[in-house]
Each structure stands twice: as C-alpha cells, then as structure tokens.
Amino acid sequence: xxxxxxxxxxxxxxxxxxxxxxxxxxxxxxxxxxxxxxxxxxxxxxxxxxxxxxxxxxxxxxxxxxxxxxxxxxxxxxxxxxxxxxxxxx
Length: 90
What we know:
The protein is mainly α.
C-alpha cells in the first residue's frame, strides 16, 4: 500500500497475477540423504517394525476369541524380547 491508497491488497503485492496456485519454495539439496541400496537387518528389522502392531492384534484375538483378557497382556512383552534377542545376536 502506498501513502493515500486505502485499497487492501490481502497479501498480494500487485506485481504478479494471483491465480490461486500455491507454489513450493525450492530447497537446495543437502546431499548425503539418499536411501541405501540394501538395508541392513533384513527380516529381523522388518519384524521389529511391525511387532507392536502384531502384539496388539494378537491381544485382541486372544481377548475376543479365547476370553483371555486377564493373561493376554503377555503378548506386549514380545517386542521387547525380540529387541533383546536382536541385540544379543549383533
């Protein structure tokens, strides 16, 4: 806005056409952030990634199917046991 101009611009400077498109700001490449071609850990790393979800599913199955709500919580110890076993092998 210039002095004496009372017309609001609403975040638009008037220098360019406003078409409603949001344009991303380019970010310079940092380098070294590439994904390795082969992941370490293989199957065990994948099992560790989904172990909490599998424990929850197992708990629900034990609870609903076998009415084992009182003892079904034991499956939540499995992710920790898997992590300990993985650490012992490395």
